Amino acid sequence: MDPITITYLTYKAANAVMSSLITMPTISQGKKQRSGDSVIESTAKANAVKLNSVIREIAGTFKVYPDYLLPPHLYFTNKKYQWSEMLLCVGKGEYDIPAETVLVGNTRFSALGVDADYQIFPPGADLSGVTMAQWWHTASEVGLTSAGRAGLELNAEFTGDSAATASSYQFDGNTISIPAGAGFFPAGWTAGMILMVYEKQTFDVIEGWADPDVIKGDFTTLQPFVGMKIEIAGDNAGEYVIATYDSVAGTMTLSYDDNSQVNGLLTGSQRMSIAYRGSKYEITYVQTDTNGKITAVEVNRLTDADEVDLTWGGFTFAITNDAVVKLDGSGIEGGWAGPFPACPYGEVTDTVEYDVMFPQGLCLVNSSGVLQQISVKLELQWRDINGVSWTSVQKTYTGKTVDQIAYTETLSLPASIRPEIRMRRVGAKSTNLGARDVVQWYGLKCKLSAPSSYAGVTTIAVKIRGGDRLAAQADKQISVKATRRLPARIRGAWTEPVATRSIEAWACYVLKSMGYTDADIDLVSMDALAAVCAFRGDFYDFSVESQSTVKGELANAFRAGFAEMTLDRGKIRPVRDQIHTVYEHMYSPQNMVEPLQRSFAMLRPDDFDGVDVEYVDSTTWAKETVECRLPGDLGMKVEKIAMEGVTDRTRAWRIGMRRRRMHRYRRWTYGFSTELDALNSRYFSFCALGDDVPGYGQSAILLEYLVGNTVALVSSEPLRWVDGQSHVIAIRRQDGTLSGPYPATRISETIAEVPAIDFEPDTSWQTEPPHLLFGTTTRWSYPVLVASINHGGDNTVSVEAVNYDERVYADDDNAPG
User: Fold this and answer.
1) Helix (H, G, I), strand (E, B), or coil: what is residue 777?
2) C-beta of residue 428 within 8 angstroms of C-beta of residue 329
């Protein structure tokens, strides 16, 4: 069967899926200082690809977990939410998939609103405009680390001293120097580094009472203006905004960021450093003495937006011993993470995505617990993997939140290449204990060329966002309940594909997928089986997901309808084991070349006394077991049966009870041989057997028959009549089929009278005359089902059969208690 041999994907595609799943990062909370919310991951998943496995085929209706056709594409939006886009394979062929059966975990997609979407595409549909059908390769080197982090942590550290420890400093213009004998700046400081400089001056703070407090002093170094965002260090430390400024009087008032006025400052003479927020200055030049010791640095002042203040006039000349000069770290360049190839070997791309995450949030929590804004700068570089020069992309991330945040950035390359990517942090982590500025390189992806359609399979494109509606679920796999669409037979003709659970439709599909045609199939028997199964509600619902054989698959399907597959006269024919009322053929000593052999198997202590049937239940879609017992069964030795394709408890029980009753009531076996007569019968033909054992049926030749108001049959042998018993007689037609049995009345020792017969016997002896089988109504023959017919090659045919007993079918329409 075709679906049993087709493998899922090319090795490259399948391996890419597996790689992406193995290295899929999970989000780490990191060290917590204050509780914050995690990024909302998109945790929906599909079934992982199995290399070289078959494409799933569904018979009837079944719940399945679609398989990845391409690696899932994960990306972040709005700093908080992670989306997942997936293209999945439902199975080979066409399906009806009701919207209410498309689930993630146990939740319907429709219940997720704008947080989820899906589209189902028939085989061969054009997917070129579907974003979920894009192939995004995830670089395995970026993401989850052995230390348990969600990504590669990007660090920038200065190994020397981060703060100057001079006993005094001199400020003059754009120069900060250390007087002789007062010390030196730390070794390793260089142009480009960022300093935080707190030059304290004495200011008078005047109580404003109902009005804002007033600060009076020399503001030449500050160069204040209304609206300037400032930071005060020392006395009255905090972040403020200049509300008013009087350059003539040398006074100013402050407000908070919400425009409320500032009162309650420490009044009187106070030592304070007042500067742009951050108090940042960029080193432009380093001056050393003859021994290489750093004695002075020239600086540019930075605004609160970290831009060079081109209007700044420099420091007013001052020498102070309580100033603080230390590295901010934002000018320190970290070591590179990478480079890593974004593409697999042999592939090229022109689009790269990379994800960065701040697992502890991004902010500064001051001593009062107030969140303050903080920034982190990252640099990414790329080049052709065979190239030399790098191209840089820098991006600054600014935040004021303790919640995890993450970003997905897109890098468009000028041409399709196999790029390698590296990334680093520009600026060290803040040394402030309240800072949260850890950053991780969470993911690296590139877009590859993907198929625009998938022939022969139904696909489902899924887009789903992580959110609270999924957070409580343990199982987040995507599932669908699909019903196969196949050609069906109505009134002896094939239809266009329809949604069907028919055993016949599936069996014929399997056969035709292997090249068989209608001429190779006994469609009359198929239609008869379909009619019985439809009336009874017996279906075949199964997902074929592993290698099998045509014979094995047909056996499973037919077994769901109490049938078996046979090859009969060159055609594939289903045979249903069922109640019979009409005999097909008759065999007696008159056409047996050897005596009938009978064997009875006694019940033994080690025989099965129960059957357990394992099946997949269509309510839970989990494996369930139903016990099948007859009265008196203790279940000491139980036969266990796995019923593939049966998803209903009652029907699984019926099959199990049929099996249990066969153990109990099919104890006789029969063996006999004929010339070529037995070739008339088929597997499981319902036949009547006779032998010469006294007390059982008696066989003879019909010599003559006389027709009047009744029919008189003349036997070649004296008939053994039993007083007080009712008798019957059966006649073998010329084609071997059985006519009767008819109620018989004694006329003489060799003549029996019957009301009528349904054919005209030929007693001319120009052909073999009819045979008779005579006896009481309960013992005139052995009713059997033919189990096997074998042509010996010497014009003899051997037959094996089992006894027919209606008790075998007693639970076919019952239900478990």
Assistant:
1) coil
2) yes
